[in-house]
């Protein structure tokens, strides 16, 4: 029989955890963890996540992109419009159904995404320069696990969704 962690001896630890997560969220939003140099703060979170998903999963329709990111189609449509306007994403016809639209990372979008990734990698290296490689691995594994738990909670009926209609996937 397990004890509720909020009533046991872990309340101090859970208080520290919730406080540190709140600080992290604020600092991440303030800096946008945008990287270093001229690229810093140059791509918002929604654009980065959309471009990253298109890069990792390839061309897809708005509904598939929305489902994969845990947001609604209208949000994706709104977020993708400026990416299309600036040439980072291109709209093409679906190969099997010419009436359907597929979103695809453009060569310009690929180059821009790699520039931002490189800058963000440098920021992560700077922030963890005095960490042992094992510490980076453990932190990454735990943060991935934490994000997975948040994502799972948000997908459960009655779970609280993101306030701004965005997911971090």
Structural notes for this entry:
The protein is mainly alpha-helical and 169 residues long. Helix content is 59%, strand content 6%. The chain has 6 helices and 2 strands. The protein has helices at residues 11-31, 45-57, 62-69, 73-85, 107-127, 133-155, and strands at 89-93, 101-105. Strands 1-2 form a two-stranded antiparallel ribbon. Residues 161-169 have low confidence and may be disordered.
Compact description:
The chain is mainly alpha-helical and 169 residues long. It has 6 helices and 2 strands. Strands 1-2 form a two-stranded antiparallel sheet.
Please report the number of helical segments: 6
- Coarse structural class: mainly alpha
Main sheet makeup: 2 strands, antiparallel
pLDDT averaged over residues? 83
**Strand and helix order:** HHHHEEHH
Number of strands: 2
Cα end-to-end separation: 34 Å
Helix content: 55-70%
Spatial sequence of strands, sheet with the most strands: 1-2
Kindly estimate the percentage of residues that lie in beta strands according to DSSP.
5-15%
Radius of gyration: 19 Å
Q: What global shape is seen?
A: globular
Helix and strand topology:
Elements: H1 11-31, H2 45-57, H3 62-69, H4 73-85, E1 89-93, E2 101-105, H5 107-127, H6 133-155
Helix pairs in contact: 2-5, 3-4
List the main descriptive attributes of the protein structure presented here.
disordered C terminus; mainly alpha; 59% helix; 169 residues; 2 strands; two-stranded antiparallel sheet
